[in-house]
């Protein structure tokens, strides 16, 4: 028998066209409901992609839920950490799904953080030229950001997320109880993306975060509220600009710098995880904006102070093992997907909640800024 449905989870609808609209459900206990909800999508089998840590914690629960709902279910388990979002990781997941005989009408279920979500989503996008998939995000970062919007992919040694596809999930089940087992470090990393939503376009939300961030970390009602606010904001952007022809690039605030740092640290999660790179990138984006006279130094300071208070890094010198010189950073940033005609595009800010897309940024200007940042330590 399947588990009964939980008390009304929060729901955010993503009204995409072409029969691709889907719901994001947010609440405690949703992993145990995955079976009933997957069965409602009409699937007969599910390939659950997860990592070793998450498999140990929630693998049996989701498999039992799927089997209780009448689905044939099998697990494909990758190593935890960013290094799995690789060509080798992708091949292993595809072959695992094929060995399970996952058909086009079946489901790929991504159970885990953003690494598993991006990897399983890309496998689903390409396996048999497209299989449906469900996101069951288990990190704060994945619940507020990566499970929504359909960006899937893997890293190349030449740069972050350089091989991928847009492939929207059919359903997102954000079980906020799974965050109870998340490490402090990973909670902080996810929080960088939470703060990002305030910094992009919602100054009131950033102010709310400054007051309520401890409740998000400790699992108070603020946690579900923050997940819902971020998902609503992201869903709105994705519906207006699914393939990043314009506005969606705003979601990249902090990422031009952050992705370069991830590449220069070899995608080694022991040194730097995505959210930490984003935190440094957010602080850099605001300090660069202040340097260009776009926003006040006081606002840039407010951003960095809040991130630091939440335990996040905000300086290049805080990258463990270092991040190379300005040339190495510029070289890594040259692979950014927002580059146009060889020129860098940054997301800059006229203030907190007032971010905008800035194409054609002069390389020399960026180099001088990075050199000063590296000197500042
Ligand atoms: N597609 C998108 O729109 C998008 C958006 C943001 C980030 N991303 C990508 O997401 C990735 C980062 O995701 P992440 O921060 O979730 O990292 P992650 O997937 O590596 O998870 C972080 C760590 O937490 C562990 N973990 C996961 N859930 C847990 C739980 N409930 N309890 C205990 N441990 C748990 C994992 O095993 C892992 O070691 C990056 O690759 C980034 O590029 C994608
Ligand atoms: O969904 C988006 O769009 C984002 O930019 C969200 C980011 O937080 C995320 O890290 C994304 O994967 C970055 O996308 P990329 O196109 O710069 O690889
Ligand atoms: Zn991100």
Number of helices: 13
Label the overall shape: globular
What CATH architecture of the largest domain do you see? Answer: Up-down Bundle
| Structural domain tally | 2
CATH domain class name of the largest domain: Mainly Alpha
Distance between the termini: 59 Å
Characterize the largest beta sheet: strand count, sense, and whether it forms a barrel. Answer: 7 strands, mixed
Helix fraction by DSSP (H/I, runs of at least 4): 40-55%
Structural class, from helix and strand content? Answer: alpha/beta
| Widest beta sheet: strand line-up | 1-2-9-6-5-3-4
As a whole number of angstroms, the C-alpha radius of gyration is 20 Å
CATH topology (level 3) name of the largest domain: Dehydroquinate synthase-like, alpha domain
Uncertain segments:
none
Strand tally is 11
What would the average pLDDT be, to the nearest integer?
Answer: 97
Task: Estimate the strand proportion.
Answer: 15-25%
Give the CATH H-level superfamily of the largest domain.
Answer: Dehydroquinate synthase-like - alpha domain
Which distinct ligands sit in these coordinates? nicotinamide-adenine-dinucleotide, the ligand O=C(O)C(=O)C[C@@H](O)[C@H](O)[C@H](O)COP(=O)(O)O, zinc ion
SSE pattern:
EEHEHEHEHEHEEEHHHHHHHEEH
Describe this structure in a few short sentences.
This protein is of the alpha/beta class and 377 residues long. It contains 13 helices and eleven strands. NAD(+) binds at residues 114-118, 138-139, 151, 160, 178-181.
Please supply descriptive tags for the structure shown above.
globular, 2 domains, binds nicotinamide-adenine-dinucleotide, alpha/beta, Dehydroquinate synthase-like, alpha domain, 46% helix, binds zinc ion, 377 residues, 13 helices, lyase
């Amino acid at each position: 028998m399947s588990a009964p449905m939980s008390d009304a989870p929060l729901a955010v609808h993503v009204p995409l066209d072409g029969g691709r609209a889907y719901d994001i459900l947010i609440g405690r206990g949703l992993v145990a409901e995955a079976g009933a909800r997957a069965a409602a999508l009409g699937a007969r089998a599910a390939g659950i992609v997860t990592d070793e840590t998450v498999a140990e914690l929630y693998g049996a629960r989701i498999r039992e839920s799927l089997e209780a709902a009448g689905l044939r279910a099998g697990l494909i388990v990758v190593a935890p950490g960013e290094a799995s979002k690789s060509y080798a990781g992708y091949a292993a997941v595809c072959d695992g799904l094929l060995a399970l005989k996952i058909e086009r009408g079946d489901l790929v279920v991504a159970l885990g953080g953003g690494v598993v979500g991006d990897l399983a989503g890309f496998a689903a996008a390409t396996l048999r030229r497209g299989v449906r998939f469900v996101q069951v995000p288990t990190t704060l970062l994945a619940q507020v950001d990566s499970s929504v919007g359909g960006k899937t992919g893997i890293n190349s040694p030449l740069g972050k997320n350089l091989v991928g596809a847009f492939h929207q999930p059919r359903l997102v089940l954000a079980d906020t109880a799974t965050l109870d087992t998340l490490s402090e470090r990973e909670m902080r990393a996810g929080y960088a993306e939470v703060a990002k939503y305030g910094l992009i376009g919602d100054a009131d939300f950033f102010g709310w975060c400054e007051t309520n961030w401890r409740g998000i970390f400790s699992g108070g009602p603020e946690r579900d509220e923050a997940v819902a606010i971020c998902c609503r904001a992201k869903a709105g952007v994705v519906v207006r600009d699914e393939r990043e022809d314009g506005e969606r690039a705003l979601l990249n605030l902090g990422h031009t710098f952050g992705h370069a740092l991830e590449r220069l640290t070899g995608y080694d999660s022991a040194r730097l995880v995505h959210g930490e790179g984003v935190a440094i990138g957010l602080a850099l984006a605001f300090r660069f904006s202040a340097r260009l006279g776009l926003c006040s130094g006081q606002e840039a300071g407010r951003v960095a102070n809040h991130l630091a208070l939440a335990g996040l890094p905000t300086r290049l010198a805080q990258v463990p093992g270092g991040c190379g010189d300005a040339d190495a950073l510029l070289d890594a940033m040259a692979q950014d997907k927002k580059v146009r005609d060889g020129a860098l595009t940054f997301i800059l800010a006229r203030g907190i909640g007032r971010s905008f897309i800035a194409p054609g940024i002069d390389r020399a200007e960026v180099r001088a800024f990075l050199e000063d940042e590296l000197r500042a330590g």
